[in-house]
Amino acid sequence: MIIRRGLHARGFRFRLHDRKLPGRPDLVLPKYRAVVLVNGCFWHGHDCALFRWPKTREAFWREKIGGNVERDRKNLAALKSANWRIAMIWECALKGRQRRDAGDLIDALTSWLSSGDTKLEMTGFR
Q1: Does the pLDDT value for residue 33 go beyond 90?
Q2: Rg of the chain over CA atoms, in angstroms?
Q3: In whole angstroms, what is the distance from residue 117 CA to residue 99 CA?
């Protein structure tokens, strides 16, 4: 919601979870040919302070999270091949001790949308 509110307040209009695109990206900005993915660090296996492998049912969780990572890889490849610009914002950029300032995060995302860059990835400070 932080990302949605911030972009909307700055005049950006977007669609939510477009079923026509691989992986149903969180935000789709057709005018900029851009998608924004907001990924949870646990569910998408991000290597950060917020991710910990569960101590119980380890085999289940490794298969589940590994499948999510593989599906993400395929969806990103499909979006790239369809010439979509991709911004990936990790949960650690929004939560935890290493989070970024919400205004700075929206500033960076706004600048990226206005640029011609094809990729943006934002994580928490390390």
Answers
A1: yes
A2: 15
A3: 23
